[in-house]
Amino acid sequence: MWHDLLVAVALLFVIEGMLPFLAPGLMRRLLLEVARQDNRSLRLTGLFSMLAGVAFLYLIN
To answer: How far apart are the C-alpha atoms of 38 and 3, rounded to whole Å?
Structure first.
């Protein structure tokens, strides 16, 4: 189980690092846009992201 968790975290780092490596200007613009959002919008985005992740895990398993 720990091995799978560490593999998932490593893949998360790889995926998260792709955008700043490939398009740093776009990454800056996206971060500025996120900083302008209110807390409610950020929470809803986080909720939908978590639900999509859970649904994806359900489909995989």
So the answer is: 37
